[in-house]
Amino acid sequence: MTSATVLAAIAAVVILTTAVATAQDHAALVEDGRAAFTRIGCSNCHTVHGIGTAIAPDLSKVGTKHDSAYLERWLRDPREVHPSGHMPALELTEADIRALAAFLAAQH
Ligand code: HEC
Predict the structure, then answer these.
(1) How many whole angstroms from 30 Cα to the centroid of ligand 1?
(2) How far does residue 45's CA lie from ligand 1's centre (Å)?
(3) If you measure from the C-alpha of residue 26 to the centroid of ligand 1, how many angstroms do you get, rounded to a whole number?
(4) Is 83 helix (H, G, I), strand (E, B) or coil?
(5) Angle at 51 between CA 20 and CA 84, to 5 degrees
(6) Best mutation site among 32, 45, 84 for ligand 1, i.e. most ligand atoms within 8 A of its Cβ?
(7) What's the rounded Cα separation, in Å, for the pair 79 and 101?
(8) pLDDT digit string (tens) for 79-98?
(9) Please, what is the angle between helix 94-105 and helix 68-76, to 10°?
(10) CATH topology classification for 29-105
(11) Ligand 1 pocket residues where CB is under 6 Å
(12) Structure pTM?
């Protein structure tokens, strides 16, 4: 093998390892969001695939409507996104916001 081939092989391994790690991180974030959804009480108003109380819109397909960036903005301050809406602003940590947005964006 030439050194260029060795370097290319190393680069490929690094890229693949990073991709796998990123996918695992994302899956963990989605699971954190799933847990936060009931822990924080989103499920007192919303349902996701039959879990929760349906007094607010069902979120089972919210990921087909909104991406995680929009969802993060929504969770920081729902009234800023939809001034006439009726969802209260909740005291959420940045970690919970990121996890909840990843979880909701994955709902299709
Ligand atoms: C007190 C009830 C209540 C709680 C608790 C609540 N929501 Fe909501 N949520 C609503 C209502 C009502 C709406 C509809 C807002 C509107 O009028 O547009 C809404 C809308 C949303 C939307 C927008 C849906 C869409 O189709 O655009 C998302 C996303 C959402 N809520 C996520 C959450 C998450 C995540 C939590 C927990 C951190 C949460 N909500 C907690 C009542 C609630």
Answers:
(1) 18
(2) 7
(3) 23
(4) coil
(5) 95
(6) 45
(7) 17
(8) 888 888 888 888 899 999 99
(9) 140
(10) Cytochrome Bc1 Complex; Chain D, domain 2 (1.10.760)
(11) 40-42, 44-46, 56-57, 59, 62, 65, 71, 74-75, 82, 85-88, 90, 92, 100, 104
(12) 0.88
Helices (H) and strands (E) in the chain, counts: 5, 2
For 74, the token pair is: 């929504």
Q: Return the pLDDT at 71.
A: 97
Distance, CA 84 to ligand 1 centroid (Å)? 13
Nearest residue by C-alpha to atom 13 in ligand 1: 87
Strand blocks (E) in 1-108: 47-48, 51-52
Q: What tens digit of pLDDT does each residue of 10-21 get? A: 888 878 788 888
Domain ranges of the chain: 29-105
